[in-house]
Amino acid sequence: MVIEEITGRIARDLEHLKQYTATPGNGCTRLPFSKEARQAVEYLKELMHEIDLEVSEDAAGNVFGLLKGEDPDAPCVMMGSHYDSVSNGGDYDGIAGVICAIEVARLLREKGIKPKRSFVAAGFNDEEGMRFGTGYFGSGAMLGHRDVEYTKKFCDKDGISIYEAMKEYGLVPENIEEAAWEEGRIGSFLEVHIEQGPVLDAEGVELGLVDCIVGIQRYMVTVNGRADHAGTTPMDMRMDAVDAAAKVISKIADWAREKADGTVATVGYINTVPGGMNIVAEKVEFTVDIRSRNNDNINDIAARIKKALEREVAEYGGSYEIENKLTITPVELSAEMLDIMEAECKELGYSYRRMLSGAGHDALEIGQNLPAVMLFLPSKEGRSHCPVEFTKYSDFAKGTVIMQKLAEKLLDK
Q1: Distance of CA 154 to the CA centre of its chain
Q2: Cβ count within 10 A of residue 219
Q3: Backbone φ and ψ of 52, nearest 5°
Q4: What is the pLDDT of residues 100-147, one digit of tens each?
Q5: Strand bridging mode 279-280 / 228-229
Q6: Could you give phi then psi for residue 368, rounded to 5 degrees?
Q7: Angle 17-21-24 from CA coordinates, rounded to 5°
Q8: Do you find a cis peptide bond into 274, omega within 30 degrees of 0?
Q9: What distance in Å separates the CA atoms of residue 285 and residue 151, rounded to the nearest whole number?
Q10: Contacts of 394 (CB under 8 A, 6+ apart)
């Protein structure tokens, strides 16, 4: 199979999927349990049926295409990514990895390979956490990490819970635990993804072999004060939630910089209530996202935030709440699979480098439990999570070829 044919099929499928967005002309918005998510899933199913895979959709909204091996009870080789997006995001983040997985299954079919163990192409639901502020819902459910109480706990900005959204989508939240795969059924996990950063593009390197994915902790913080008139309330008699919150927020980035090893911390959302120019705010809500290869760094910053909140609200008699939205520890990816990928890159003459992933991926959730590996492809100018996100279709084809060769070796073990 020549690389041009693989490129053409990947281009066809990704171009088709671009239409499934709630914001046409302004990037991809494909939130979980939405109409656009359903349309994308149905197209993925069509592609899987097209190459005679056994197609299924689980209780969490994940979609799978199974190429059955000679020993269906042997741990399978799974490859995939997510089909949801952020709001006004790009056309390749996540979904391209699902298309590459389906293309690997197609190549295995075309080569007439009868694997000893099964190959599974997977499309996961709600990796981004954009709608409910969480993340890794589908891959977490596959691992048995989600239950019905979890679906009732988190809500979107309109107050709709995961539980309610699932029901509207046609799923039964009470059955969520049925999405869990039995221990031992999955032997390894492979994921292709755009880099979402500038390194490969800036260095002119074709492929990134990811050896570690950073850990992530996410929090929603609420600082409570008292609403008062902005002109008539003296400064020493205020319970100003913005004043307290701002003093904490202003320190968070510096605490991350102190770690000096790639640790990052981001306040990406701030909301004041009631939000009037001439009103002292009674409440401030803000999010914190902390990431690092070193989990101690993440824990230290989280502890500093809590200590600072306690100090600042005590100054004026207010209060605060801090809700943990997500905790995932860093994961080192499979050295054995990375070595195979490196050898294949050398064999095919593709330039490559080993690298860290500063973004979370389904391989981060899955890699906590199973051998996993990731392959990065260059993002033009490092842009991602925005409408201008771009990766060449020929680069997806190169990544697919490497993963197909890796899969062949794993399937014969």
Answers
A1: 17
A2: 20
A3: 60, 40
A4: 999 999 999 999 988 999 999 999 999 999 999 888 999 999 999 999
A5: antiparallel
A6: -65, -25
A7: 110
A8: yes
A9: 22
A10: 3, 7
